[in-house]
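Journal club prep — side note

Before the paper discussion, L.F. wants everyone to see what a predicted structure for a comparable chain looks like in token form. Sequence:
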Amino acid sequence: MNDAHEASWLGPFRQPIKMAVALVAILWALHLLRIFHILPYSPVDWGLYPRRIFGLKGILTAPLAHSDWKHLISNSVPLLAMVTVIWAFFKRVAWQSFLMIYLFTGIAVWLFARSVFHIGASGVVYGLVSFVFWSGVFRRSLKSIVLSLIVIVVYTPMFAGILPNQEGISWESHLIGGVVGILVAWWFKRDLEPEEIEEPYEQDEKTLFLRPDTFRMTRTERAQQERLDEEEQ
């Protein structure tokens, strides 16, 4: 009985969790390969360097490279959570939103960030967190609003990461990722999931205090309608 209940509860999350674990596993595998000199690379090799042709490759490779274990772990935990949330609750736009956040964050960092090497998945993480939060603002469905509130509670400390002049931190990636997340959430605001689409509420007009179209009618139209209603009675 408990196994069946657990299976039914985990059902919607099973595939998203696999997706999140696979993505984070790629980051860890690349980091291990670098440590053991099987695939040696450095920020110069994989990093994103703004406004230089040789830095363009970093749009694709920079989120995959991390400087040390602390850097990798700090990005792995929120990445696991956010990828799971997006693939579980935003299935219709999961792939599109993730790729847009990944690519557009890198492009914008290349265009506008400081002239230093930028590495790590933190810009993507900020984009995903921003996407989930602002989807609640734009979609206004109960599910998305609840997710937004959870994001506020859990990820409020991340707001400090967008403050400028933090040594050793690509605050531009954080800020730009957050802005890209807002834009992507707005772009997909009408691509609602089936459970977000509210069924029309049907009720006998005679039991309503006001007609359904009351606030769509002008004052003259309402007065005419009231006279017609009185004549019918």
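L.F.'s comment for the group: The two ends are 59 Å apart (CA to CA). Keep this in mind when we get to the figures.
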